[in-house]
Design brief:
By secondary structure, this protein is α/β, with parallel strands linked by helices. The protein is about 45% helix and about 15% strand. Strand 6, helix 11 and strand 7 form a beta-alpha-beta unit. Helix 2 packs parallel to helix 3 and helix 6 crosses helix 7. It is globular, with a radius of gyration of 18 Å. Bound molecules: zinc ion (2 copies). One zinc ion binds next to loops.
Length: about 290
Amino acid sequence: MSMIIQKPGKEAEMAQIDLHMHSYYSCDGQYSPEALVKMAAQRGFKAIALTDHNSVKGVPEFLAAGKKYGIQAIPGIEIDTVYRSREYHILGYHLDWDDPRLAQLTQAIDNAQVELIKTMVRTVNELGYAITYADVLRYTNQKSIPGFASIAKAVLADKPGLDMDCFKFMQHYLAPNTPADFLHKLPKAEEIIQLISELNGVPVLAHPGVYLDPNQIEAVQVLADLNNAGLKGIEAYSTYHKDADNHKFHQLGLDAGLLITAGSDFHGEFKPSVALGQNCATDYPVLQALNHYA
Ligand SMILES: [Zn+2]
Ligand SMILES: [Zn+2]
């Protein structure tokens, strides 16, 4: 694939492209797929991608809404994977989202996650929060399976005095207490990169700053390794990154011959500080390169 990559410029900022957002088909998303498209259209966005956690269930509604509101709606997914004993998120764009292999994979991840949530309910009980799995289900989006967000909502509803939002509760109490064996139930990053490619999609490493320090040689090694496995892009621009790191990942991505993408990782109220389109500098050449796969 030939790629033309430009540094984000003024023109790119004028008509925005946001390639990472969650609907209520994710356990931590607030809005329906159609509501996301409507919001983006009203703000004059050119294209957006739906990237729910391990789910493409919102894609049909999202694509229909794209036609209705006249903006490009790109089908996508964000898959939980494991790489070198850490959780890595791999985005897939323009993939054959209705392929049964994807349904089989997402079902297996869902099953592992439901087991994890039951275990984590016991963990928060030990931390002194008396919630049950039934409580967690009450705080789960109708369209998704329970996740960390559901536990956080259940705990915070029970303890209104706790000075913390759902995302912070998740970061402080849930993520660090996740049992290591859960990771081994996730598919390997390399396998998912390959599967997305087989499904005619574009595999992109989500928010690399969550797992990699762009100043360390490890970042170069990991990118080379995943590149060998078939990775095609890196989400250099993310609301998870500091500004300086966005630029460093941009350069590392260019050095590795990867497509440079950007996404807000918008969730709605679960991450109240992140707006739709925030920190997005994905420009037209990248969109064109992605659209080769449409
Ligand atoms: Zn992610
Ligand atoms: Zn995400």
